[in-house]
Amino acid sequence: MTGSAAMAASQDAPAADGFARAHAQLLADHDLQFSFTSIQLQPIPAWFKPLAQLLAAIAKLIAPVLQWLFWLGLAAIVAAVLYFIAREIIRQRWPGRRKGAAIVLQPEWRPEPARARALLEDADRMAEQGLYTEAAHLLLFRSIEDIDGRRPRLVRPALTARDIARLQDLPATAAAAFSIIAQAVERSIFGGRGLDSEAFAECRRAYEAFAFPEAWA
């Protein structure tokens, strides 16, 4: 053995002795378990076997029904998707057909004459006190309520009075009358000047044309 080999062997000996001592110390530690017994599985209870057989029989019976329900549900989903696609295509390519169906006028949608007259009386009382601008505002707001009552979801919060007057779902007579009220109110708001008796009288006549049934004929 050469000198270098003897030196390497002398250096490995303490390391081997240290490993042996550490292994012996580990085995002497009774808190650690080194031998494991095989796991014994509990036998299946006797009562579970008939139950499992019953469940298997039920599943076998309803399997065809579940299969049909699956295909029926899938067909319903496909039909719904095709319906919405076709509706959007019709709405984009033939908008006139959809609007024609939406503008079917029904008598029960018309404003009640008694309610319209009560509003005009309230506006007249305000006008007698010189509150012409406020009276015109009242007519405008009530006109918007009338439109919303006949055409739900037609009037959106983002729409201005002029936008509402240009809605295609409004009959021409009602749209023209509403436009007169809207323009007068906008002049008072953006022009910084209140309305006079003549301007209010024009708004009042416009509301009469807008509110009563013949305006929606």
Order of helices and strands: HHHHHHHH
Distance between the termini: 123 Å
Would you tell me the overall average pLDDT? 75
Number of helices: 8
Label the overall shape: elongated
Q: Helical proportion?
A: over 70%
E-strand count:
0
Structural class determined from secondary elements: mainly alpha
What's the Cα radius of gyration?
A: 44 Å
Q: Beta fraction of the residues?
A: under 5%
Biggest β-sheet strands, sense, barrel:
none
Number of separate structural domains:
2
In the predicted model, the low-confidence regions spanning at least 5 consecutive residues are 95-109
Give the secondary structure arrangement, pairings included.
Layout: H1 3-28, H2 48-93, H3 95-102, H4 113-128, H5 132-150, H6 161-165, H7 172-190, H8 197-211
Helix pairs in contact: 2-3, 4-5, 4-8, 5-7, 5-8, 7-8
